[in-house]
Design brief:
- This protein is an alpha/beta fold.
- 43% of the residues lie in helices and 15% in strands.
- It is built from 17 helices and eleven strands.
- Helix 2 (49-59) runs antiparallel to helix 6 and helix 3 runs antiparallel to helix 4.
- The radius of gyration is 20 Å and the shape is globular.
- Pathway: Cofactor biosynthesis; NAD(+) biosynthesis; nicotinate D-ribonucleotide from nicotinate: step 1/1.
- Keywords: Glycosyltransferase, Ligase, Phosphoprotein, Pyridine nucleotide biosynthesis, Transferase.
């Protein structure tokens, strides 16, 4: 019998805990819904269902240990009451609904935001690893290591890359838990100046790496249904974040309704309060030019801000962006699948997105075609009209 894929509740992205703390303090009773989608056509999950069910059952048995709680308490933005709450916390399997219908894996999560927010990343990691256990049971580890060494060489073999910084963002679509650990160990050992850390809290704790992350799309999406006028939802989300973290964790996500609409709301107040911006869809070159122009228009020196990139990056693509704009601002890159699932078999593009909050539909209008996920076309039309963007 194989060991469970998820062996710690920390085996997730940091931003799930930072958002969860904010939810505990500000919206503990808000009900939400998340839905799974496989964006890769023709993926066959038919033989995976029972293994996924067993892994979910094992996930819902986990509790944070005292050592893990002590690690979280050592992060200066994690508050003591949140630690006391987490000491009692356990995921509830009743909130997860899983089936296989019409050739597709059907999964949705429905329940209180506070008690469901930690499902997304481990569920995606479970589905991914179970899928590859079934479809690639004998991976070519040596090929994976050869590819990893090539990527390390791209960074290490040039003096101009000494200020290039990137992190591992690859938990949700990793080939396996063991492979992600090996990748992180090799990057930390061979690129100590450039490898900035990992979004995975468990790996950060066990390997002595810096945990990296702030907020995700769901945080800004939820505010579409949490009380303010829809047109004010982004500003309300950013205000809530500032109230919670008082200047810490200051990277704002820009593409919930597109970069142009975000910059309308990201006025001088927010531009001074936040340390920088994160790009997760659209053309990174055009996005950077808009971000730099916005800061300059507000008479803020872009060199005092950090631009973070995390949209389907490869090492080569990240280096290209870095070399083009390194004289203009500070940059950092979050690289996922390209690091943690590049052993030969084609990765699958799977997501779990918030689709409702407070009994209302919520959505993201991405800067990239195909990333929008919403079952209510009328709401998408309304959202686009309110923020004066195209669907």
């Amino acid at each position: 019998m194989l060991d469970p894929i998820i062996q710690s509740l920390l085996d997730t992205d940091l931003y799930k805990f930072t958002m969860m703390q904010t939810v505990l303090h500000q919206y503990p009773a808000a009900p939400v819904e998340y839905r799974f989608k496989c964006r890769t056509p023709g993926v066959d999950f038919s033989g995976c269902l029972e293994d996924i069910r067993r892994e979910i059952a094992a996930l819902c048995q986990l509790r944070l240990t005292e050592d893990e709680l002590a690690y979280l308490a050592g992060l200066d933005y994690i508050k003591s009451d949140f630690i006391h709450f987490l000491r009692l916390f356990q995921l509830d399997q009743r909130f997860v609904h899983l089936d296989y219908q019409q050739g597709e894996l059907q999964l949705y999560i429905r329940g209180p935001w506070l008690h469901t927010i930690l499902f997304e990343v481990p569920l995606l990691a479970i589905i991914n690893e179970v899928y590859f256990r079934h479809h690639s049971p004998a991976p070519d580890w040596q090929e994976g290591r050869r590819r990893l060494q090539h990527k390390i060489g791209l960074v290490a073999n040039s003096l101009e890359n000494q200020h290039f910084h990137f992190s591992d963002f690859g938990t949700r679509r990793r080939f396996s838990r063991a492979w992600q650990k090996e990748v992180a160990e090799q990057l930390a050992s061979q690129l100590p100046q450039q490898f900035a850390g990992t979004s995975n809290l468990d790996l950060a704790r066990r390997l002595g790496l810096r945990p990296v992350g702030t907020m995700a799309h769901e945080f800004l999406q939820a505010f579409q249904a949490l009380g303010p006028r829809l047109v004010d939802s982004q500003k309300a989300a950013l205000e809530a974040w500032v109230h919670e973290y008082r200047g810490r964790l200051g990277i704002a996500l820009t593409d919930v309704v597109g970069m142009d609409a975000f910059l309308v709301d990201f006025d001088l107040y927010f531009a001074k309060l936040f340390d920088g911006l994160r790009q997760d869809s659209g053309d990174p070159i055009a996005w950077t030019q808009k971000a730099l122009a916005h800061y300059r228009r507000l008479r803020i020196d872009p060199h005092t801000k950090t631009l973070v990139y995390s949209d389907s990056l490869t090492i080569s693509k990240a280096l290209e962006i870095y070399r083009r704009f390194r004289q203009d601002c500070v940059m950092s890159f979050g690289i996922g699948t390209h690091l943690t699932n590049d052993l030969g078999p084609a990765p699958i593009n799977i997501v779990i997105k918030m689709t409702a909050c407070n009994g209302q539909v919520v959505a993201k209008l991405s800067d990239s075609p195909g990333k929008t996920m919403c079952q209510d076309e009328a709401y998408l039309t309304y959202l686009a009209r309110v923020f004066k963007v195209s669907k």
